[in-house]
Amino acid sequence: MDRKKRTWIQAAATLIQNANIKGFFEGRIFRGSGKQICVPGLNCYSCPGAVGACPIGSLQNALSARHFRFPYYVVGLMLFFGFLLGRLICGLLCPLGFLQDLLHRISFPLKLRSFPGERLLRKLKYVVLILLVIVLPLCVKLTPFFCKYLCPSGTLAGLLLAFSDTTLFSAFGSHFAWKACLLGMIVLLSLMIRRPFCKYLCPLGAFYGFFNRISLVRLEVDHGRCIHCQKCARTCEMGIDPVQSPNSFECIRCGECSEACPTKALQIVHPFKQITRSALDTKPER
Q1: Per-residue three-class SS string for the chain
Q2: What is the predicted pLDDT for the residue at 94?
Q3: Cβ contacts of 54 within 8 Å, gap of 6 or more
Q4: Whether residue 281 has pLDDT greater than 70
Q5: What per-residue confidence (pLDDT) applies to 276?
Q6: pLDDT band per the 50, 70, 90 thresholds, residue 280
Q7: CA 268 to CA 1: how far, in whole Å?
Q8: Exposure string (b/e) for 220-239, b if CB count within 10 Å is 16 or more?
Q9: What is the tens place of the pLDDT at every residue in 156-202?
């Protein structure tokens, strides 16, 4: 999949998840029945355009509720998305991932793929998933810690609402200032590093990463075609060698390695492609 096609898919996915266009002008949150359904990616419930709910926000609200009830629906939907697509959701369907991709394409003097301690820093998103999304909301009622203290999508939603209704700016305090600084830092890092939030902080990406090896959509290597030129590894800005680790937890299934491969040894496959390929392989010769 080339970059242009991927960009159009990302833009369409972002628009579909934020189809309440009038909300950006009215400064109001959509409250229709769609808000009962979780979207696959990280897209804040409070965004004026959002027509669905964020899975991480929904999970935290359930876990931190005054009277705890296990969130079967939210967990079941997240499992469904994971088993079906894995981190392809990060690569194609997440609005926040799309924003980071656009920022990284801006010309900037310093572009980094790695730095000392970068591999260790990637573990931080698993700490965020366990501690801020699960443990602390369970222990402290009515406090969705990730949404309240860390999520840049929620900060961006707040700013969009405030630009629609400027009276909201007067309600912003020191807590929002912290989150605005964090958002600014992520924007700045996105100019230098490909998807810094996805790599280091996103709990949803951490969760979907566990499904990369078993999801129906995955990256497949044809070792018979591979000439070990390493073009795929040099292309991958997530820092993966796709031939050695095609099902890495870090792979967002963006398809850039497949595009760079001169022999087409790397392909993103799905059940329909496998069925078609099997049918062609078994077709009798005339």
Answers
A1: CCHHHHHHHHHHHHHHHCCCCHHHHHCCCCCCHHHHCECCCCCCCCCCCCCCECHHHHHHHHHCCCCCCCCHHHHHHHHHHHHHHCCHHHHHHCHHHHHHHHHHCCCCCCCECCCCCHHHHCCHHHHHHHHHHHHHHHHCCCCCHHHHHCCHHHHHHHHHHHHHCHHHHHHCCHHHHHHHHHHHHHHHHHHHECCHHHHHCCHHHHHHHCCCCCCCCEEEECCCCCCCCCHHHHHCCCCCCCCCCCCCCCCCCCCHHHHHCCCCCEEEECHHHHHHHHHHHCCCCC
A2: 98
A3: 38, 39, 42, 43, 44, 45, 153
A4: no
A5: 46
A6: very low
A7: 9
A8: ebeeeeeeeeebbbeebbbe
A9: 999 998 888 888 888 888 889 999 999 999 999 999 999 999 999 99
Q: For residue 9, give both structure tokens.
A: 């898919």
Q: What is the pLDDT of residue 274?
A: 55
CA distance 46 to 53: 9
**263 token code pair:** 């022999």
Question: Would you place residue 285 in the very low, low, confident or very high pLDDT band (cuts 50, 70, 90)?
Answer: low
C-beta of residue 194 within 8 angstroms of C-beta of residue 104: yes
Residue recorded with tokens 């398809």: 255
Query: What are 193's strand-pairing partners?
Result: 112
